[in-house]
């Protein structure tokens, strides 16, 4: 019931400013006629819950540093990097401090990224049918778009055309990254105005984050009432196992069948 650390509730920061990192695996890959181990490296933004995936070829400190450098090349230098007390993370701390990154080692319990590791493993099991893929296929499979398109909240939407807030909104501007996120900019408009419009769009996502997501993760469940059951008029997703989760249709509840206990 303690308060969450500041990186979990930090708003209006660039995604991955406060990042947690963890390994998962090993993942077996096919190299010629033999099998070799690879490890997935999961980086998660502690505020927006977006993830970034890299491939490590071993559990050594050097391999860990290379994975962190690859992450920083795409997502920028984080302000803080949180990890457990693994020996490879301990060895990487010195170099990370040299790159002006504050590295924080915590105990294995209570890590915010363990649930996301499970989500990535579930997605891999459904996508990666070959149990021993090639290195190239493994890298192509370890893409973050599927996990980053998951809804952050379960609050019913007021309009069926409204999108649930997802990590991709902060990274790509929409839940899937497809289609324009704002009106096309007419010719002759200055770049300064275009930049301001993009900033307004990002601020709108952060305002939704403050209104919809932050109250959920800071809730003290011990003193909260039970979750409100579904009622007529609520907007829901219609789960279709044959379609990607980002393509599930939305529906409105027309009738609720109550059980004997209400």
Give an overview of the whole structure.
The chain has 262 residues and is α/β, with parallel strands linked by helices. The protein has 2 domains: 6-148, 2-Layer Sandwich (Nucleotidyltransferase, domain 5), CATH 3.30.420.10; 167-252, no CATH class. Helices cover 34% and strands 18% of the residues. The chain has helices at residues 6-9, 61-75, 87-98, 114-127, 135-141, 145-148, 167-171, 191-217; strands at residues 18-31, 34-45, 51-56, 80-83, 102-105, 235-237, 250-252. The strands form 2 sheets. A 5-stranded mixed beta sheet has the order 3-2-1-4-5, with helices on both faces. The protein has a two-stranded antiparallel sheet with strand order 6-7. A hairpin with a 5-residue loop joins strand 2 (34-45) and strand 3. It starts with 5 loop residues before the first helix and ends in a 10-residue tail after the last strand. The model has no long low-confidence stretch (mean pLDDT 81).
Concise description?
Helices cover 34% and strands 18% of the residues.
Number of domains: 2
Task: Please state how the strands of the largest beta sheet are arranged side by side.
Answer: 3-2-1-4-5
Tally of alpha and pi helices: 8
Helix content, binned percent? 25-40%
**CATH homologous superfamily classification of the largest domain:** Ribonuclease H-like superfamily/Ribonuclease H
CATH class designation of the largest domain: Alpha Beta
Name the poorly predicted regions: none
Overall average residue pLDDT: 81
**CATH topology heading of the largest domain:** Nucleotidyltransferase, domain 5
Indicate the structural class: alpha/beta
Radius of gyration: 21 Å
Largest beta-sheet characterization: 5 strands, mixed
The ordered string of helix (H) and strand (E) elements is: HEEEHEHEHHHHHEE
- Number-wise, the strands total 7
Q: What is the CATH architecture annotation of the largest domain?
A: 2-Layer Sandwich
The gross shape turns out to be globular
β content, as a range? 15-25%
